[in-house]
Fold:
Amino acid sequence: MPHVRTATLGVWVGSGSRYEGDEVQGISHFLEHLFFKGTHGRTALDIAQAVDSLGGLMNAFTDKEHTCFYVKVLANHLPAIVELLADMLQNSALDAGAIERERQVITEEISMYEDSPDELVQDLIAQTIWNGHPLGRPVIGTRASVSRMRREDFVGHIGTQYRADNLVVAAAGDVDHALVEEVVARHFGGLDGRIGARPTEVPVPEPAISVRSKEIEQVHLCLATRGKAQADECRYQLAILDHLLGGGMSSRLFQEIREKRGLVYTIASYTASYREGGMFVIYAAMSPQNGPEVIRLVFEEIGALGAGLSEEELCRAKESLKGSIMLSLESTGSRMSKLARSELYHGRQLDLDELIGKIDAVTSEEVRGLVWETFGPGRVAMAAIGPFDGNRASREALEGALCRSTDLLDPAGLHR
Structure:
């Protein structure tokens, strides 16, 4: 990206919550924290000062299948920052005092998360629809699992997951490929070994219902169904369906339920795709008394979309999706993430022309067919968090609304 003077570099490790044992749930996220707490040659303060002295921004995140450590710096500082990242990931001290401090920090993070029902319900729906599958586990772990992890657990996890064939380094910005390759080889070249066999069990969605009581004003609701895996060619049709239903202010759900009726402040849809499967989620937050009506209207809009989709509406969704992709790639961070995810999930680079071509090829018949394939009786799971304590009627009203609404969608494609 020659028009910029910065570079973003990410080290992606195939270590996430789906690859953890039951006894150490959240270890990938815990270890992500610990890598910033000092090496055998640098303290945590040394690491922070080294980044600041380069004018850089360093952070990390963990998800269900990966942990990513990334930094944005002036391009001429890239060699120095690669050396720092390599030191952090290969020479972590895993000091006992740092482990105990981060244990407390993560416990507070869990508490903060539980005080955010709009985020908590996203984990609850994953646990509900993928009950018993590793993809249903919360990335952050639980208080119980975080409390019992010991130094030997972290050492063992590094030894099995942080292997040469389980890392991808991606960089975007004012960079030269040969220089990046040389610097990475110099500082990461000592890594060797291979990871063991990875689990490949496909998650089977369960149309279950989970309701959790919390003393808050609104009900936070998620409806979820089967999505598409990262390599599934039908993910382009699902992306269009997402845009049409809840992907923006012009989407059907936003216009009908918020703009026309004022029943919610927030309503949206999104897709979550992983190596062996995915899910499609609709999220809304509303007053408890509005919950059943919101569910009914959601399925009315789904049925209406399955019954008819104009070429004009399809064209708008395609242009919106293409625009969001192209605009995001003007950022060095987003470009770096695209490079890494293409390599991790496809083993090759998906160029922009290919993505645009796949989107343009989607037809209205394919989208309508996907509606009937995705929704309907026995296909939709629900998770809700709200003021249900002692209010059994409110819970039953939501559950009843879901059952009645899914019955409206005939699996054969007839909107009754």
Q: What stands out?
A: The longest helix spans residues 96-114. The CA atoms of residues 113 and 119 lie 7 Å apart.
